[in-house]
């Protein structure tokens, strides 16, 4: 059944976040900081591995070995301009703050910031990775939900670790995950079979750059506005598709 993988993923995030909130207050601050740092480092590693997709055979064959990086760079720059003009990051933060004001008992500014950070950071992390894209397309094409099942397991443990530090905002990330992966699944049903491997590689490599930004946020190196860079996931494959003409 198309969409089953996304349903499992959403449930896994909710379960992980629920357990994380339940045990989070029992963990000392030092432990929670260490766990967050570990997730930040792991996110950097995953991002770097995704960027390797610029050397994908189909991608290189389409645009040329010296142009793959240009496609990703163009996607990130143009996508960043579009995202900043649309204020995507700010809209995500406002949505998280609006939800927190209606659900949370603690209305302090610190609690609000933790809720928003948990929602925004986990939403970006769970939506950007190649498993979210490729797994959802595979689900829509009827090729199985194995990739989304693996992603669900990873997201559950990540949600647990995030929620232990950042609280219920992490659980809210299940909403954009469901909408995004549901949309991709529908795209897979409609036209995924016609999406060239080179364009998927462009999306994967660009997603890797965005994941590096998330890693920097988790490590508090720099608060990269990754939300504003999300249009890059659309712009990069569009630039690559110009080489098909």
Overview in brief:
The chain is mainly α and 245 residues long.
Protein architecture, described:
With 245 residues, the chain is an all-alpha fold. The chain contains 13 helices and no strands. Helix 1 (4-24) runs antiparallel to helix 10 (174-191) and helix 7 (130-141) packs across helix 10 (174-191). It is globular. The two termini are 35 Å apart. The mean pLDDT is 85.
Distance between the termini: 35 Å
The number of domains is 1
- What is the residue-averaged pLDDT? 85
Integer-rounded radius of gyration:
18 Å
**Count of DSSP E strands?**
0
If helices are DSSP runs of H or I spanning 4 or more residues, what is the number of helices?
13
Largest pleated sheet = none
Strand content: under 5%
Residue windows where pLDDT falls under 50 for at least 5 positions:
none
- Which structural class do you get from the secondary structure elements? mainly alpha
What percent of residues adopt helix (DSSP H or I)? over 70%
What does the overall shape look like?
Answer: globular
Secondary-structure element string: HHHHHHHHHHHHH
